[in-house]
Amino acid sequence: MNILITGGTGFIGKELCQKLIDQNHTLSILSRSPHQNTQAVTYYQTLANFDNLNGFDAIINLAGEPIFDKKWTTKQKDILRASRINITQQLVDLIKNSNHPPHTFISGSATGFYGDLPKQNNAKYYDELTACGDQFAAQLCADWENTALKANSDKTRVCLIRTGIVLNKEGGALKRMLPLYKLGLGGKIGNGSQYWSWISLEDHVNAILFLLNNPNSKGAYNFVSPEPITHAEFNRILSQVVKRPAFFHAPEIMLKMILGERSQLLLDNQPLVPQKLLNEGFTFQDNKLTPSLFL
C-alpha cells in the first residue's frame, strides 16, 4: 500500500513505520524535521504539498503536541487543540477533495476521551460504548474524533484509536518513570486505587496494522490491554523490576497544586477494555502487566 503518515517520527510512529517498511509498503511521512528520503520513504514538512490524496491507499494520523509536557495555560490548550484538530481537518479536506480517496483513515485519539470513570462494583470495566467525559482532555478528544469522522464515506472508512498509556522502556511515560524508580524515588500517586489502562508498544503497533488490513473495521477502538491495573499494583511491579523501594507518596491535593488540570491524567480512574479489538479477533501479545515489559 501507499500510505501517508503524520507523526511518523514520534515514539509510536517510528516503530509503526519500520514495520510497514518491513512489509514492503511505500510511505510518505509528514515531519517538521528534515529527513533524507529513501526508496521506501518520502518525507514532507507540510500538507501544502498536496492538493488531494488520490495517490494514497491509507492515511494514518498520529500527529499531536505532547499533552503532559507543559502546563495547561489557555495558550497551551490552544496549541494542543491546533496540533490535533487542525491537521486532522486538513487531512479530511484533502480526502474530500480526492476523486479516488484513500480507503482507510486511521486517526489518533486517547482514553482521555472518557475522563474519570465511576468506581462501581457492577461496572468494573468500561468499553467503547462509554460516554465522553466533561474535562478538557475529554472534550479535546471528542472534538478531535468528530473532525476525523467527517472523512467517513462509502469510499473511506474511519478508525479512531483511543490510546492508553503506551509502555516501552525506550520512550513514552515509562522512559520518564524508570530513572526515578531506579533511584528509589518511585511511589504511589494519589491513593493508588485508580485504574490505569495501558498497552505495550508492540501491541499498539500491531493493532494499527490489524485495523489497516481489516476492511470491516471502523469507528472507535480502545487501544489498551485486556487487563487494566491499579496504580498501586503498577507501582509494586515496577519497584520489583528495578529492585528498589517505592515508598514515596504524591497525594492527590499536592498533584493538583503542582500540575493543575494535568493531574487528571494521573488520577483519573480508567478501567477500560479493548472490547471491539477482541470482538474482531485481534490477539494481544501482552495481556497482563509483567516485569518483562519493563526490561
TrEMBL record:
Superkingdom of this protein's organism: Bacteria
Domain DUF1731: 250-291
Domain NAD-dependent epimerase/dehydratase: 3-222
One Pfam family of this chain: Epimerase
InterPro entries, per the entry: DUF1731, Epimerase_deHydtase, NAD(P)-bd_dom_sf, SDR39U1
CDD domains to which the protein is assigned, alphabetical: SDR_a8
Family stated for the protein in its record: Belongs to the NAD(P)-dependent epimerase/dehydratase family. SDR39U1 subfamily.
Protein name, UniProt field: TIGR01777 family protein
Organism this protein belongs to: Otariodibacter oris
